[in-house]
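Hypothesis: this fold can be encoded by more than one sequence.
Test: take the structure tokens below, design a sequence, compare later.
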């Protein structure tokens, strides 16, 4: 053993540090970028599955029929999905492989936009009895936290702020479930109109952006617009399914349940599986499909049904 150590000269150690280790490092980089990175990009590019609204509320609280628990729970679950899906939250990642991805970050932005619209309505309308009543502190904090830059990675990061928003919403939900608590949720027709109007504005803007995909939209933004719309409609779909439960009395009293069902059907169509590896936008009646226009069609129909529903709810 001693003879071997003596024979292992300084030049041998130099060879290890100057030749062997660099080669191992280069090999690691090749494996990472040629095998691991593409594999992770493929796995992390899959959109989350839909979730069951009823499963977000415990059986105990389902039996109590507390107003608002389904809608608030749906919002909480959406944030959980946003942060804990495959690959986690990607919009603010600055390292590979996330930095090479744009479809799922665009999807994430769509979800964030709808969450912001919902929390704004929850803060200003749904959690208040009238315009002069005080705001719920937990809802105010949740709304404020969600208005953080969706691509911010410096502390506090986007994940931290959205997780913080969920913590506030869970406190609000716990207060709702407490009969002695001060938190309220008002499932009135006018409040539902406010929420639908916020969603309708978002759908109108999204439909227009998708419709311009064959002419005005930059080629590099076509898939971003498409997946952003998928994220928006994903979030709206689940919140409106929860609204169907929380606003049941209002919907039936206004004969608006069928209208909501039609909106949900159209939004479900926007979530159909994608079988193409890339977003294709063919011209006219050519052989290449136009995914953006198909999505715009579903969204336009959902928006039209939403506008009809708003008019129905506004009637006496």
């Amino acid at each position: 053993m001693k003879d071997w150590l003596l024979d292992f000269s300084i030049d041998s150690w130099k060879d290890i540090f100057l030749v062997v280790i660099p080669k191992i490092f280069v090999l690691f980089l090749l494996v990472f970028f040629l095998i691991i990175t593409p594999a992770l990009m493929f796995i992390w590019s899959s959109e989350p599955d839909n979730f069951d609204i009823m499963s977000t509320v415990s059986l105990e609280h389902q039996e109590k029929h507390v107003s608002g628990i389904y809608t608030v729970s749906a919002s909480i679950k959406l944030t959980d999905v946003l942060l804990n899906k495959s690959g986690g939250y990607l919009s603010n990642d600055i390292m590979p492989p996330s930095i090479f991805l744009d479809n799922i970050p665009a999807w994430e932005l769509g979800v964030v936009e709808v969450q912001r619209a919902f929390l704004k309505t929850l803060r200003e309308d749904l959690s208040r009895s009238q315009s002069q009543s005080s705001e719920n502190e937990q809802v105010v904090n949740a709304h404020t936290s969600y208005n953080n830059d969706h691509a911010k990675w410096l502390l506090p990061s986007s994940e931290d702020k959205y997780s913080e928003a969920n913590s506030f919403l869970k406190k609000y939900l716990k207060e709702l479930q407490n009969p002695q608590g001060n938190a309220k949720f008002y499932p009135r027709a006018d409040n539902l109109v406010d929420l639908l109007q916020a969603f309708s504005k978002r759908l109108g803007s999204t439909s227009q952006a998708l419709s311009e995909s064959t002419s005005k939209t930059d080629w590099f933004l076509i898939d971003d617009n498409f997946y952003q719309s998928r994220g928006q409609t994903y979030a709206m779909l689940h919140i409106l399914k929860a609204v169907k439960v929380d606003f049941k009395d209002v919907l039936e009293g206004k004969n608006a349940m069928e209208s909501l069902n039609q909106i949900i059907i159209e939004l479900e169509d926007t979530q159909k599986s994608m079988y193409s590896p890339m977003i294709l936008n063919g011209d006219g009646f050519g052989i290449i499909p136009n995914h953006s226009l198909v999505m715009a069609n579903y969204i336009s129909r959902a928006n039209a049904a939403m506008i009809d529903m708003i008019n129905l709810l506004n009637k006496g």
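The longest helix spans residues 10-44. The chain has a mean pLDDT of 87.
Hypothesis status: open.
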